[in-house]
Each structure stands twice: as structure tokens, then as C-alpha cells.
Amino acid sequence: MKMIRSLALLALAGATLAGTAARAAEALQVDPELSAYKKNEAGVSGTLNSIGSDTLNELMTLWNEDFHKLYEGVQVQVEGKGSGTAPPALIEGTAQLGPMSRPMTPDEIQKFEDRHGYRPTAIAVALDALAVFTHKDNPIQSLTLPQVDAIFSRTYRGGLGGSIATWGELGLGGAWASRPISLFGRNSASGTYGFFKEKALYKGDFKETVKEQPGSSSVVNGVSQDVTAIGYSGIGYVTASVKPLALAKMADDEAYAPSYENVLSQKYPLARALLIYVAKAPGQRLDPVAEEFLKYVLSKEGQQVVVKAGYLPMTAAMVKKQLEQLN
User: Cα–Cα distance between 100 and 83 in angstroms, integer?
Assistant: First the structure.
């Protein structure tokens, strides 16, 4: 976790995320200090299996398409059913890449180490703001984390001591006052579910009324079709039909939007790094195809794909630290 937190402390001036992934792509630019990808003239070939995060699914697919253009002899197979599926795949050797939108748990790391004799390597490949979305027509603009907890949780560890079930309880008046809050979220296999549970629910438990969805796009789609709804997912899934809210850690704190600069500074309270775990034995090179794929992902071109997908690019300083882990 210390490594992941340190990523966000490396400052780089960045433009604010716009209301949609397309507008964000126009606003954000990758760090000009990032190196362009240098193709391996000797070439690489083979099959690369990726099993893990739904949040990273689109990114993995886009990276795969570009990587295949560079190396036609490489086939990357991507399966994104949730971060919880990555550790077993790496442990059993059914995947070389384990995308995750949360860090591995101590138990997952221990199981990996018991099988392989060494710990897995986490490579940060992009930054993300885990966003809390409402329907675009909802007038609310911001929430505190204790309010988010009281909305989604049945354990109320945020300190408010009870449930928030209507929009009126959040200060909305008129027709909104009596409207019940409709909840959308991810299933327990999701890293986004786990991250949200730890950070926004203070490691508490979700309400049984949360409509669990198999993917982030389903969450955003559900919120877009229900004016009373609220849900959470990575910022890359934002559409024009939903609105990401500014969040404050506590009632007296300033609320910050899920923007690039607020993620880098960690002012936005649900900032995170997106990771790809690999099985790299100490003192040994990584699988050649996996290593070349990660070098592309961490290049200027690879980070431009991050922006294209609506996520937040790594800085050159961050990338340098990640590349050092491949040596």
C-alpha cells in the first residue's frame, strides 16, 4: 500500500477531468517526459493470458489491440470478471497477467508465496478516481464519506449512526425530499467492491438492498436509467447520463472532484492505482511476452491509451519506478 500511496504524491500539473471519457481525452495530456515505445527488433511471439479486473477490462483490450499490431505473433486473451479472479489465476499459472483495481490482500499474497516461494510483483499501470455517480438530473453536487457510508452500508462505521435512505435526508427539497435512494454496486469478486468497502464503508458491510452488478458499465447504466439512483465505479466508465460527485473526507472538509490533479495530490479521497500483478521470481527475467507487453503499457503510447479509455495516466517518475521492477 505504501508504494501505491507514493504514486499519487509525485506531482504533475494536469488538466481536470471533463464530464465524459471523450472530453477527458481531449483535456488530459500524458507527461511529455515519458519515453516512446521501442519495438523489440528480435520480436516476441506466443500467447499471453490476462485474468482479473473488470475495471481494467477495456484498457487491457485496447492495449492488446495495439500490441498485436506491433507483434502479430502475439495473442493476448483477456478475461475481466473481477479482481478477485486474478490471484487464483496467477497462483495456478493459468494467466501471466493479473489486472487488479485493488491491492492483493495479505491472504492472497500468502497463498501465492506458498505456491511459488516468492511474493507477486505489483506493477502500477494507470491511475483512477473511484467515482460516486448519480443521475445527471439529480441536483446534489457533493457528499462526505460518512454520508456515503450511511447510504451504502448497514454497519454505519462512518460515524453518522444510522441509515440515509432518502434524498431529503441529504438536504434535497421539493419532489426530491421523499424520493428513496436506489443503490447500485459491484459484486464481491470485484476489486472496486473491495476498495469501496474498505475506504468508503470503513471496512463495514453493504446493505442488502444494493443491486449488485457484474461489471462497472452495468452500474453506470443502472444509474443512468434511474433518476433516484446512486452507484460507484472507476471514472473511466463515466457517461453523459451520469454525474460524478465531489467527495469530502469529513463534514467540515472541502469536497474535491475526481480530477487528475486531485488524484495526484490525494485530495480526492477515493484515488487509487490500477495494477497488473505478475509472477516474477527474484533475480529472474519475467516471461518475455509479458515483459514486452508491460513495457508497451508503461510507454508514452501505452499511457495515451489510458487517457483514451477515460482513466488517468502515470507520470514519467511513476513509470520509472515501475520499470525498475521488471529488471
Answer: 5
